[in-house]
Amino acid sequence: MAEFQEIIDAHAGMVRRITTVYERDPGRIEDLTQDIWFAVWRALPQLRDQATLKGFIARIAQNVCVTHVRRAVARPSQHLAGTFPDPAPHVHETMTQAARVNLLIEAVRSLPDSLKAVATLYLEEVPIKDIAQALGISESNASVRLHRAKSAIRLSVGDHP
Asked: For residue 31, how many other CB atoms are within 10 A of its CB?
């Protein structure tokens, strides 16, 4: 159990960032994060090479998030009265950095699913080879999708190549 906690500690930021791309509600982000860690815990015995742990976790996170979105689209959402925003401020970030991160998240959220998946994994520094494997596409296809995603994000945030 201590080994699994070390895995969580090492990759919690990545999992949180991936869930934030797919979900906005803080409570649902927490639930989705827990679902991801449960899926990782169940799948961990299948991991053959510890060197691919980050990609393994990213792939599981991506799959759980995509499934979450598909289920959410299939059922109507019900908002509870009296819900409150996440009160936990990011102390280590300045307001400018937080605004830029939010702008990037919104740009990634607005991408089509095929580009969103590649961009999310790329932002987590998953190698293109592992991205391709995680998504079941060729490396060249992953590279093309990444290029398209970067172009779309640049346009969205106002940067021009």
From this structure: 14
Write the DSSP assignment of 83-129 as a string of letters: --------TTS-HHHHHHHHHHHHHHHTS-HHHHHHHHHHHTT--HH
pLDDT value at residue 95: 66
For residue range 21-66, what is the model confidence (pLDDT) as tens digits? 888 888 889 999 999 999 999 999 888 877 788 889 999 999 998 8
- Where are the alpha helices (H) located in the chain, listed in sequence order? 2-22, 26-43, 53-74, 95-109, 113-123, 128-135, 139-157
Using a pLDDT cut of 70, give the percent of the chain over it.
83
Among left, alpha and beta (phi > 0; psi -120 to 50; other), residue 82 is: left
Q: Rounded to 5 degrees, what angle do the CA atoms 48, 63, 18 make?
A: 100
End-to-end CA distance of the chain: 47
Chain centroid to CA 4: 20
Measured CA to CA, the distance from residue 103 to residue 83 in angstroms comes to 24
Task: Give yes or no for a contact between 69 and 22, defined as CB atoms under 8 angstroms apart.
Answer: yes
